[in-house]
Each structure stands twice: as C-alpha cells, then as structure tokens.
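Service request form, structural biology core

Requester: graduate student, group of Dr. S.
Request type: structure prediction, single chain
Budget code: on file
Notes: please return the result as structure tokens.

Sequence provided:
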Amino acid sequence: MSENRKSVELGVFLPVGNGGWITSTTSPQLPATYEYNKEVTLLAEELGFDFALSMAKWRGYGGPSQHWDITLESLTTMAGLAEATSRIGVWGTVHTMIFHPAVVAKMVAVLDQISNGRFGLNLVAGSNPVDQGQMGLWRDLDHSGRYELAEEWITVAKRLWSEERVNHEGKHYKLDDCMSNPKPRKAPPIICAGASDSGFRFTIKNCTGSFLLGSNRDDFVKTGLRAKELAAEVGRTDFKTYGLFTIVPGATDRQAQERVDYYNSGVDVEALDNQTREYSSDPSLKQNTMAKRFISQGQERNSMSPAALIGSPETIADKLAYIVKNADLDGVTVIVPDFIDDLKTIGIKVVQGLHEAGVTTTAYAHQHGRLS
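Core staff response, request fulfilled:
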C-alpha cells in the first residue's frame, strides 16, 4: 500500500434527466423520477459518499431515446432529498441567468434548515441559448459578460446571507433596502464548472471549489493543476477541485468494454445532433469550453464522454488514483450507467482499490467502521 496518501471527497452526479448520462437507446433507460433519485441518494449515503449533486436542465434533445426530455428541477429535488437523508451533502444547481439572486438567497436559507447545513450550491453562468432561450430568459452576453453577471449575482446573494438590509445598484441587479430572512447558519459550499481561464478565475474568487472535466487522462491532470496554479496565484490554499468522471465497470476489462460497445451500437445520433446544434448556436462558442466538449461528443458520435474510465474495479481504481494524485484533486464525482448496481461497485470495490492505491475516502472509513 502506498504511504503517499491523498484524501478525496466522493460524490454522485444524480440522473435527474431520463436516460441518465448516456445518449443511447441501448443503455439503461433510467427514469427521471424523484423516487429513483431518492433511491440512488439513499444508497450513496449508505455507502458513505460525501455528496449528491443534481444538474439543472430545461429542455431535452429528443431523438429515439428522448434524451433528457424529462428532467427534475434541481433545487426542489434537493429539498426533498435533504429531508430524506441525514448525513450526505445535497448540492443543487442554479443558472444565474434564470434566477434572481435574492430569490435563491432565501431558498438556500430554507434548504440550509431542511438539510441541517448539508446544502451546497452549483452555479452555472451560461449553458446554451436554446435551453434558456425557449423561456425568453437567455441573456445575449458574451463569455466575459456572463461571468460578470455571475459575479454580481453571487455578491448580492452573499450580502443577503450576512447583512440585515442590502442596497445595491449594479449593471444587472438593483436592490432597494432588501431584507432576506431567515439566513443560513453559514454560506453554503459554492462550486462552478467554468473551465476557461475566465471561468476558473471567477470560480476561484467567488466559490469554494471547481468541477473539472478532461478529454483524457493527461488533460484531466493538466486541467487540475492549472486550477490549483490559478488559485495559488491569489492565495486560495483552501480552494477545492472536483473531477467529474463517467465510469463503466465490468467484472473484467473486456466485459466493461463490451458494455461500452453495446451502448455505442445504439448511440442516439439525432439527440446528439440536436445537442450539437444547440451548443453551436452560442455566439461565444470559442470561449465556451464546456460547450465545445458537448459538440465534440456529438461530432464523434460517442454515447458518453470520450474520457470515460472503463474496466474492472481494479483497473478503474488504478486509473482514478493516478488522476487524483497527479491532478491534486480534492474530490471525485461519479457518473455511471446504472445508478444502483454500478454505484455499489464504485462505492465498495473501486473504493477498496483506491484505498490500496493510497487514496483515502470517507466511504472506505464508513464501511470499515472508522466512522459512526
């Protein structure tokens, strides 16, 4: 066992959209229901996961799989899961273009009470023009303008969490003697997945952590180290980075690859084309790193992220441990095809392998009687 131990948080990215995270007619056709997501979250809590996160999505991509045509709203979902659970963190997502910060400030205060301090907030500054434009809520801002709005948004929210009366007149919001009570016992963990330098700098300045993706192993490492480098430049030694990983396990490496091949045999090209079209309509596409990842997936006709970790639990643990250590990650967020059986595999067998590779998790300690 490695003596060079690294401790990470372990989270699950909930399947609040039908079909989960694989765009295929042959992958598990997961239901976008509260009951299913509650079952997943309770399992994650039982396994010792640290948090469950839900996305915000307003429009699906159609196709034969009707990918994400049904989605749960994030904050109300997490309010229910906060009541249903007792230990695991419950993190919800907000698009800053859609919700006024004063409205969310009060919602977060209530979620803080329901969860007894376990709620976290994921901020999204952009998305795509079609998703929010269908409601007339997309703002025609360039890439830097979206983060400018998001920074004003979170500044207002934080003031409402700590000040009795707030007067604010900015470019995007105006508050006159605004009162917001109750207040959370403390500001929640705030995360963002902005991946450009502008996104990283916004996140480092205003949030407690960043969600990271990579196109392959080396890209994950490069991105993780870049985020830590930018944080160090402004003295943020407490800043956390969370890698987001699609994981497809199998009893053997071959069986895991056979699962991926089967899902790719049913790839929903129509849904991917719709996804590509929507993200390609962004005038600031050149700076929108996340949009380019979605477009690349569509162009390559992949049913899932090309950076997916595929293999036996031992293989996945080795691959994951390498990225965690070399990218200096503070957390791992998991996407799987089947959020019951596969999550058990990750939460037990892969967690065991991570421990043997020198990566410590609450889940391992929880399962081995080192936590109550």
